[in-house]
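**Sequence with structure:**
===
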Amino acid sequence: MPELPEVETVKRGLAPPMEGKIVSRLELRRADLRFAFPSDFADRVAGRTILSLSRRAKYLLIDLDDGFSIVSHLGMSGSYRIEQAGGGEVPGQFHMERSRNETHDHVIFHLVGGSGENLRVIYNDPRRFGFMDMVERRDLDLHPSFKGLGPEPVGNALSSTYLASRFQGKAQPLKSTLLDQKVIAGLGNIYVCEALWRAHLSPQKPSGALVTAKGAPTKSLELLTEAIGTVIHEAIAAGGSSLRDHIQADGSLGYFQHSFNVYDREGEPCRTPGCNGTIERITQAGRSTFYCPTCQR
């Protein structure tokens, strides 16, 4: 499932062609995806101007001029592509060919610009695990998908002091705590593994062990907080991970998977300088965890 950097990459790819455009028509080629579309979805979106695109956790937000936002989740295989009227895909920075199967084109935004130019933004989802909804932007935090979400893993809201307040007294393993979206929004399995490796922390370590008796963050928690921000920033800059089905808005694949230090490297030597360990894989809460038992303590 696409993680935060992938969704951020999609947002950045879609923003230039979509922002400021009028939705002349929203074409729905089926009645639902994972869930049914909102009532009168096509009629409510038609004629609206797209003010901006944003992201919260792993959700893409398309902000309209009536105060409502379209909430889009990519599910397992959802992706967008951009087509100019008459054909021709908008080029992307990686220039990698993407497969198109129009059978799985389920939602099409027909857009018109101020100069009269036309283009289509197409949502394609073979497995139909994604979904779209509408919410009044001012009530976003009350929507079931966003209610209770923690801070983003990038930005000033995530600090070691904040994490200390959430980790204090917890016997829960670090990996499980970090995947809790109420602790950190949008942080997924791949990047938790990478951040824990960078901070040299075992995914099985009790979360509370990173907090002092007085409730302050330990040095290890400070290093972990920094590692989380770094790995997410690097993944966004590289275009995400693009594992399995995920592709960017321009149809190209992200390259961050070539930079994995620990994820999906079971049996390979640890890349920590001076470490002679070997990457192992364990299962935690049904998810694969990759780590080095030698240097991650």
